[in-house]
Amino acid sequence: MNDLHVLPKVRDSNSFLYVEHKKIDQVYAQGMGETRSSRNLLRQARLVSDGRLRLRVVRRLYEMRFPEPLDPDLTLQQIRGKEGIRVRESYARASRETGVEWTGRSYKRTSWAEADPVNRALSSANSCLYGVCHAAIVSAGYSPALGFIHTGKMLSFVYDIADLYKAEITVPVAFEAAAEGPYNMETRVRRRCRDYFHRERLLQRIVPDIERAMALDDPTIGEVADFDTPDDPPGGCGIRIAAR
């Protein structure tokens, strides 16, 4: 394959490319948005850096997840507290519906086997969700590190966006899998997530949800900068796959 334009895109929900015979030549490179524009990244950076605008995005993220309105005087810490309450309620509801005992979110990466089945199931499901959200964020030209609610991690924005879908996807998937027993549970969780992502076309939802959360349709924010239009945009480098 010599034309990289025919490779599947993230919006097509294709995760893998299968070839029967291939030759792979690697160079070290970095992924970028399909448009090769930094417009979305610059907008994201401006919203994160302005305390007033950042809080506006935090409020939108919360309102997209929960039905009740927020008091306009709430601080970021108070909003985080309300979010924590609602997340605990989603765990308790899933526990009641499945009959799986829930004693709280607890696990250690270095002691995976010591966690109870439902916590391992939640970690597996969340890992799948993070991967899909990360792919969509990078494909759209945003930074996975510039979060609004979560901060200080290289995947902070991934966690912000993934939280939009946990109550809908990973919490019920994890509790349902745990209710079926511990045998081969992580594999069953990944397959359930895969089927849900495909059936509900999650990849097609993520970027519009990001745009909604970041108020990209709000004319009061305005453009952040003038953009260069180089005559020689980068291309033709990276990973080349040639069939033989």
Tell me about this structure:
- With 244 residues, the chain is mainly alpha-helical.
- The protein has one domain: Up-down Bundle (Four Helix Bundle (Hemerythrin (Met), subunit A)).
- The protein is 49% helix and 2% strand.
- The protein has a two-stranded antiparallel sheet with strand order 1-2.
- α3 packs parallel to α6, α4 (117-139) packs parallel to α7 (185-199) and α4 packs across α8.
- It is globular.
Throw out a few tags for this protein.
244 residues; two-stranded antiparallel ribbon; 8 helices; globular; 2% strand; 2 strands
CATH class division: Mainly Alpha
- CATH homologous superfamily heading: CRISPR-associated endonuclease Cas1, C-terminal domain
Average predicted local confidence, pLDDT? 81
> Which overall shape is indicated by the principal axes computed on the Cα atoms?
globular
Give the distance, in angstroms, between the N- and C-terminal Cα atoms: 9 Å
Order of helices and strands: EHHHHHHHHE
In brief:
By secondary structure, this protein is mostly helical.
Please give the structural blueprint.
Elements: E1 23-25, H1 39-49, H2 51-65, H3 76-98, H4 117-139, H5 156-166, H6 170-179, H7 185-199, H8 202-213, E2 240-242
Antiparallel strand pairs: 1-2
